[in-house]
Amino acid sequence: MNPDTLRHRRRAQLVAAGQWNPWGDLDQVRTHIRHLRDTGVSMKRIAARAGVGVSTLSYIMGPARLVQRGTADRILAVAPDDRLKAAIDATGARRRVQALQALGYSGADLARAAGISRRTVTALSSPAGADAVLPSTAGRIARAYDELCMRPAADSKSARTMRTWAAKQGWLPPLAWDDDSIDDPGAVPDLGEAVPRFVAIGEDAAELEALGYPRDAIAERLGVTRGYVVQALTAHRRRTTAHEKAA
């Protein structure tokens, strides 16, 4: 008998018996995905092994309220690689830690968010930096990075000190790294057009203001004070007016 026919017949039997449940356990699937990430398995690898799209995994980890049983079973069948129990290159973990510190997150903030020791954060963010890291540690850092990379740390003396320190070290923010290449030691950051920071802040602030963001929110998003935003916007408008007159 055709396999599809058998499946439909079995489904009809379960429906008739009141035992048909097309949905998997969403919480169990999410927990399993987090476990795989913590052991160093990337979202792309999970998706490839489960035969689903990365966007499907992102939806499951985000707004999803249900997950189809077949999808759940395929994801739950994905197991960590034994070879990932050995230490791996620390490039991606180091870049993520330094990028978040460029946003103002302290070592204590990152240790807490990633569930790792402060010593590990220090080792990754030191000038020499760690050369290798356990996959489980890399996975936890990657998960914390995914959650924090679009949110600058709340303005505080600690955050300002951290941003200043990171800038002096030449550490790059998350926008300088592509998600697909941040783990590649040979990847080159996208630094964009070389313009002074004050000019760049003014341009970004003008775009956000045009989108309806209030200045307090702009300051928080760009990791600067409200007064800095006001000054940068004023200078940006003067430059724009001067360029228009010269054109």
From TrEMBL:
UniProt-listed InterPro entries: Lambda_DNA-bd_dom_sf (IPR010982)
Gene3D superfamilies tied to this protein: lambda repressor-like DNA-binding domains
Name of the protein: HTH cro/C1-type domain-containing protein
Organism superkingdom: Bacteria
